[in-house]
Amino acid sequence: MPAESPANYQVALDGPAASGKSTVARLLAARLGGHYINTGDMYRALTWFAQRRGIDPETSPDEVARLLPECDVRYRIEDGLPRLYLNGAPVPAAEIRAAAVSAKVSHVARIPAVREWMLDRQRGCADLGIVIMEGRDIGTVIFPNARFKFCVTASPLERARRRLAQPGETPPGATLESIARDIAERDRIDSTRAVAPLRQAPDATRIDTDGMTAEEVADHIAAIILHP
Ligand code: CDP
User: Fold this and answer.
1) CA–CA separation, 13 vs 89, rounded Å?
2) How far is CA 158 from CA 14, 184, 211, in A?
């Protein structure tokens, strides 16, 4: 397990789809002077790579697992900020956040070989220093000894509203209802899978963010971290 020191610790931010974790994690990284790592984007990059090879992860999970030896997904520091690379090329952010990838990413993330493959890559990020890592299993599996753990949630309706407000992340013609259904299905797969399901760590602080802005959530979490 990675060593911790005042200048080297992890903040685990876990929670369901579209709960606003990414925005909060980015704000928090700036407040704490740490690095923001989005593990969801690592699963999305792998999903995108498989889809470009014509693989449907839902029907062909074995083919996704077979891709792993020829695939490298990692964060590199560029101008002081972590940037995601796939096989040496920067990952196109808009493409991995598109609805086509969102629809299949949970099928990739449930593959045991994929989770095993991600483990060392994500734990290795601890070497960066102060790391704010968001995902589903950060406090339970990746960094069980993280100094700070939070479970960031919001009601299903609020999460659907937040996703609808993100341009480029929803399919054409999406409605509040269709988005709510899509994220509920992703949450169902994420929380019922055999390996590293989405689950609140027993020692995580739960933050229900309905009615709060991302700034308010980040302020609240930063206060807990800086003045425990
Ligand atoms: O941003 P959004 O809430 O849509 O989700 P994300 O953080 O980009 O994660 C996309 C998907 O990756 C999740 O629905 C999970 O299936 C998977 N994931 C995971 O299994 N474990 C993580 N640590 C992070 C993401």
Assistant:
1) 27
2) 17, 12, 9
pTM of the predicted protein model: 0.94
- pLDDT tens for residues 78-124? 998 899 999 999 999 999 999 999 999 999 999 999 999 999 999 99
pLDDT in tens, 52-75: 999 999 999 999 999 999 999 999
- Nearest 5°: phi and psi at 92? -70, 110
Nearest CA to ligand 1 atom 13: 106
Amino acid occupying residue 51: Q
Strand, coil or helix: 184: helix
Cα Rg for the chain, rounded, in angstroms?
17
Q: Two tokens at 127?
A: 């070497």
Which residues contact ligand 1 via a Cβ below 6 A?
17-18, 22, 39-40, 43-44, 105-106, 109, 135-138, 186, 190
